[in-house]
Amino acid sequence: MKKVYLISGGVTKFAKANTAMDFRAMVRDAYDFALAAVPSLDPAMIDGSVISYFSDHFSRQLMAGAMVHDFLGLCPKPSRRVEGGGATGGLCIQSAYEDIASGRMKLVVAAGFETMSRVNTWKGNEFIALASDTNFDFPLGGFYTGYYAMMVARHMHEFGTTPEQMAMVAVKNHGNALHNPFAQHPAKLTVEDVRNSEMVAWPLTRLDCCTMSDGAAVAILADEETAQKLCDRPVLVKGVGTGTDCMRMADRPHGEVILLPHGKKEDYENLKYPGVHSFRAGRMAAKLAYEQAGIADPLEELDFVELHDAYTSSEIQTYEDLGLCRYGEGGDFVERGAPFMEGIDYGLNIPEKGKLPVNPSGGLLASGHPVGATGIMQAVFALWQLQGRIGKFFGDDTLQIKNAKRGLIHSHAGTGTYVAVTVLEAAR
Amino acid sequence: MKKPNKKIRLPETEEGGTLFNLDPLIVKQHYEIDYLHSYAQDSPFFAGLAKGVLLGSECRNCNYRYATPRKTCMYCGHETEWFELPATGRVHTWTTCYYAGEVFLKETPFNLVLVEFDGVDTLFLSRLVGVETGEISIGMEIRPRFLRNSRFKATDVYFVPAAPDGEEKK
Ligand SMILES: [Zn+2]
């Protein structure tokens, strides 16, 4: 396989509604942003594109990917759409990676979008819930927050995780986003603010959940020769992993934990896994990505993580799947402050602040979640971190992690149905 | 060449359009559709609900028992057989939804439960009726009830506490 590099990226400002641009114009905006960052790239060099968006219902336009490719001026070159629920953007990056790794292409555009403002929020929730089994799960309420609430209720029962620990995730991610000009919901919050906001599905409040967004993101990937030629600070795609699980969470097994290199079987003697408290797909994706990247202990070997925090609860569950701590310790991990940024005052007493920043950008909770763009947005923010260019693109270097060498991005679909994990590393 | 007939006009109605905004121009588009939806291989499950019977599926090759219909076993690929789920189960996990997808908003608040059954390897998703949020706990015994007038949907079955006050005395 050929080495694959991320060489540029661009995003739109994420917003509840961007009615001034349709999906094509939004992607074009993010694409022009990405092109501007690599001035020696002549678009004629581009071999093709991979386009991602989640739901045909939001845009009510089939083959919207073809329309985006057209709007970028890339016809008649190869293109395809990639879709996988919430993991759509992460899968798009991995699909573009495959184009380069296989030798089929040298320079590829990965572009994603979602325009969710075209229907009201509750119709939007209904559309999203169509990504659950429509015979057995959807008719019960058509509501993903309900599914995640049940999963974390079991996590609380199994491990003693608390709603206050979950609220700390919201405090962190909204607080980080105060320094990200592309973010949709920057806010200085307290644990009480989160717990006192409206209950959506017990124990998840409105501030425990991400919201609907309009937005687009573009990443440009290249082989080694092209990357060296076009980019002064290319970032190596060091490892990719993808995992899956049953669509109906009711069908998931209650068996043995899948161990990471640093995990021990004896830690989990009485744990039935994954049940509905953990994401087996996330663990599988991490395992494969770590194996390819040669990572033995992610907590020590990663400098930051951008993960799919559609809910505060799923961020805590994901710490565990990624092996940043053991299963059951996710609540404690956030309570000790490990995933917080060192240079920000959150108004919390957190002794281990800065150990391994998670969602320095603000994540989905605060940056926004235009589904098809989200996983690509994570790749773009991670690229800027590893290039040391957060200050340049954010106009504020508070969120720049000093000497960031290696980062992980995590994109998650369904109730943990598809998960894509990609490890990125600064190449120089 | 004939002269154009100026009297040719498309017949028009007075419907007009619904406008939300002028710049950019935002208009209302309506969309609805009826599907001819087949439950196909899962039909016996839904027919069962109409008869007051809750069916799971079991693999007699590897003895794995599913609390949901699965035509073939996910472990060995053998075709499964229908079996009747136990008369009572327990709350494996739960929530109360105060919001929902648009078509379900009018039903809020409602409780969702994943039900576990003795001797069955997987769970079943349903609504729990007749209890308030504060009264639900993981492990509580519950049993299925069925709509009298079937709608042939997963909501034809719902769960209630196994022994609601007074119920058993009648
Ligand atoms: Zn079997």
Brief account:
Chain A is of the alpha+beta class and 428 residues long.
Describe the structure.
The complex is a heterodimer of chains A (about 425) and B (about 170). Helix content of chain A is about 35%, strand content about 20%. Chain A is α+β, with helices and mostly antiparallel strands. Chain A has a domain at about 5-120: Peroxisomal Thiolase, Chain A, domain 1, CATH 3.40.47. In chain A, helix 1 (about 25-35) crosses helix 3 (about 65-70) and helix 7 (about 165-175) packs across helix 12 (about 310-320). By secondary structure, chain B is mainly beta. Chain B is built from one helix and ten strands; from the N terminus they run ββαββββββββ. Chain B has one helix at about 45-50, and strands spanning about 20, 25, 55-60, 65, 80-85, 90-95, 110-115, 125-130, 140-145, 155-160. In chain B, the strands form three sheets. In chain B, strands 8-7-6-9-10 form a five-stranded antiparallel beta sheet, with no helix packed on it. A three-stranded antiparallel beta sheet of chain B has the order 4-3-5. A two-stranded antiparallel ribbon of chain B has the order 1-2. The longest helix of chain B is centred in the N-terminal third of the chain and has 8 residues, at about 45-50. The chains are: A alpha+beta (about 425), B mainly beta (about 170). The interface between A and B is large, with 42 and 43 residues. The structure holds zinc ion. Zinc ion binds next to loops of chain B.
